[in-house]
Amino acid sequence: MSDDTRPDPDALLAQMRLEDVKSKSGKLHIFLGMCPGVGKTYAMLQTARQRLKEGVNVLAGIIETHGRAETAALLDGMRVLPRKQLEHRGFTLEEFDIDAVLAQKPQLVLVDELAHTNAPSSRHAKRYQDVLELLDAGIDVYTTLNVQHIDSQVDIVRQVSGVTITETVPDSILDVAHEIQLIDLSVEKLLERMADGKVYLGERAEHAVSNFFKEGNLTALRELALRFTAEQVDRDLEDIRRAKRVSSPWKTNARLMVGVGPSPYAESLIRWTRRAATRLNCPWLVVWVEGLTELSSEEQQRLTQALALARKLGGEVVSVTGGHISEALLRVARERNVTQLVVGKPDKPSLWRKSLADQLILGSGDIDVCVVRPLASAEKAHTRSKEPVSATLIGEYSWVLVSVFTIASICWGIVGFTGYMFVALVFLLAVVLAALRLTRGPVLIMAALSALCWNFFFIPPQFTFYINKAEDWIMFGMFFIVALSMGSLTSRLRLREAAERRRARQTDALLRVTQSAALAAEPQKGLAEALRTINELLQAQTALIVRENDRSLPPAAHAASTFQPSVKEWGVIAWVYANKQCAGRQTDTLPESAATWFPLQTATSMMGVLGLQFEHEQRLDFSTRQMIEAFALQLALVLEKGHFIQAVSDAEMLTHSEKLHRTLLDSISHELKTPIAVINAAVEGMSGTPGPYLGEITIASQRLQRVVDSLLHMTQLESDVLKPRLDWCDLHDVISATKQAVGPPLEKHPVKLRIADDFPLVKLDHALLTQALANILHNACLYTPEGTEIEIGASLKQDALRIILRDHGPGLPPGMEQKVFEKFYRAPGVPAGGTGLGLAIARGFIRALGGDITARNHPEGGAEFVIEVERTSKFVPNETPSPTNLEVRSTP
């Protein structure tokens, strides 16, 4: 296979994962339109009625008819879900009842208006999150959506229509859609429908026509919907080409990256990158470079919302630290093999400093740099809150004024002895010393005051600002040069020190949490110390929920928790544990909760839930949330480690117990074998002696011999010393030997053979097959009434020998079809006697022959045991035969 046609392993893996996810979840069908009124709901109901005729269990979850009679008529004869009543601020609100749908579990549910925002106190903030939960539950969903509500298209819609869309859905939900159907309507017909009152009624229709429903807006929205659908078709076509390994002329290995910060343009850049990645069908990531300056609360909130949008749209969020943003971005781009870097166009060119775009272009090398013009959100572009002046800054300015006045007063008295140049050096030294402790602003003010004071009071002619010597001009300018350089240097050092302290504090806290939980001699005390560290760092209360050994939630939080969840909180905990997603306060899922809950999830298992309840109302910014997720991961790893240690300990104990068990069985069986042989010989010698108990002794000795043989056989199976000896066997001879091995118990049951007289010879181990069949027949004799028939049939298909043994007794207990093959298992209510090893030994012998045995209840009554020995290849003489080979030849 050439390099051009060889499939990309990463692409194949991603496709397999996507297909695996889709196979386990429900199917999503989206009816997409350019705006309200094109007939999305009508088309959805028509398609649902067709599915209803096909016998599909359809439930109308929530349908918004908006008073349209022809739409409401399509609901006739269809099950309609009652809406959930919610109380909010004295008003009763109606919402989609997701719990009722999950309880009824229909095959298909109709959910109108995917971008709808749910009422407060709902489980999810958005309706599309309800739809995702239904898909995870395996329920198919039909839904409707307008193109202007797609998150990546919001900026384009605002640019075209001037309207800011607040209700949006992430593009990632479109990626999981099984089908996207465009409901198209010409602009002229839509305006006609609007005029006829088929879209909105009364004043609402007039308001819509005069604002949003303009011909130019509708034309642009229609083009946007058609283009978006065409892009989805292109992606589907590429998936088909990749699945069929057809080389595509527009195949790409691109990877996009965009750098964002606490800017009002960040969300627009993220949406642009998402649209570009969709067109190229490639992965994309968003990088935030944490600099030296600590962000204000407004900037933190803006950054958090931007990164949350990136995650919602399906991008990978990467956070790095660095003093130079351009160098950090380029470093990440090269490490992640990025092919195109997206950056915003600068507002105003700078004369003395290169913009971020210029720096990236100069250092990009082989990486393409795409400079785009982003749009600032209307509500964020003009809202800049002024930070109050801190008391520390006021104190620094006051210290500057006092210092300049003090130095000037002292130098005024000594200037006659030292000269005015000495005074300049004293002022300059004071500026340098001040730069080591003060921020940049006070240092510049001190430099300016020192220069002016030196000029006015000390340079001749005094009490003027006139300077007539070149060296005085140089010294005057030196104040500002020193102040600027020293102030900038010390400010950067101070910011770097503060940033390093923050990172060191977070790293130290993470290390303490890990050490406390992982290295403590007593795990419970270690977890308590770890939670105490988290409480001190975040100033919050914590609750730790650790799963039980059976993977269920415990009835109460861990003893080290600082608060106990309420009944309502336990509902949030159960949702987080089941869905492996964060929920609670300051999230989009169950935001009315009093705490924020994070899953304790590792790569292999879900260990519990961690909840945080902050003492003061504060927003979870990106860095804090990232730190909490790191704490949760460390706690999960520690809990998983303890689980693995316990599992290994249990396995070692079980292995030791099994070894002791086998040794004991082997010893007992061998010790009993010799006395039983003596008893049997004595009974045979007394066969001619009259007596009432001789028959009972014979039966008892045979029963004891069968128990000993079973113990020996089980010991051989478990010690892996049993090797089949293959030879040509006549199945009729095997059945005759089986009857003889069962002995007297089989005399009370007629045996019916369904085996052809000319059945071909098979190459098997005669003794093993005979003993396996004897155990099954003996089991049938014990558990069926006397006189009932036992049937034995055999057939030879192309790939296997199939033997069926059926009795006509009460059959197997329901659900016990596999349990009957376990060691020492005996069905409830059976007569005393037996060891419960017969069927386990039979399965072991058949598996030693390369086959298997299954049990089931026959539809007409009785139990049925099916033995299959596969035929994998022909046996070649002079080679060691494999136990899985079954050779067949015709009977001579």
How would you summarize this macromolecular structure in one to three sentences?
The protein has 892 residues and is an alpha/beta fold. The strands form six sheets. It has a six-stranded parallel beta sheet with strand order 3-2-6-7-1-8, sandwiched between helices. Strands 11-10-9-12-13 form a five-stranded parallel beta sheet, with helices on both faces. A five-stranded mixed beta sheet has the order 19-21-22-24-23, covered by helices on one side.
Describe the protein's architecture and organization.
The chain starts with 8 loop residues before the first helix and ends with a strand. Helix 16 (391-418) runs parallel beside helix 18. It has 892 residues and is an alpha/beta fold. 49% of the residues lie in helices and 15% in strands. The chain is built from 26 helices and 25 strands. The longest helix has 64 residues, at 622-685. The strands form six sheets. It has a six-stranded parallel sheet, sandwiched between helices. Strands 11-10-9-12-13 form a five-stranded parallel sheet, with helices on both faces. It is elongated.
Key features?
single chain, 892 residues, alpha/beta, five-stranded parallel β-sheet, 26 helices, 15% strand
Which secondary structure elements does this structure contain, and how are they paired or packed?
Elements: H1 9-24, E1 28-33, H2 40-53, E2 58-62, H3 69-73, E3 79-80, E4 84-88, E5 91-95, H4 98-104, E6 108-111, H5 127-136, E7 140-146, H6 154-161, H7 172-175, E8 179-182, H8 187-195, H9 203-210, H10 215-243, E9 256-260, H11 266-280, E10 284-290, H12 297-312, E11 316-321, H13 325-335, E12 340-344, H14 356-363, E13 368-372, H15 378-381, H16 391-418, H17 420-435, H18 440-457, H19 470-519, H20 523-538, E14 540-546, H21 567-579, E15 583-584, E16 596-601, E17 606-614, H22 622-685, H23 694-718, E18 727-729, H24 731-742, E19 751-754, E20 761-764, H25 766-783, E21 790-796, E22 800-807, H26 838-848, E23 851-857, E24 863-870, E25 888-889
Parallel strand pairs: 1-7, 1-8, 2-3, 2-6, 6-7, 9-10, 9-12, 10-11, 12-13, 19-21
Antiparallel strand pairs: 4-5, 14-17, 15-16, 16-17, 18-20, 20-25, 21-22, 22-24, 23-24
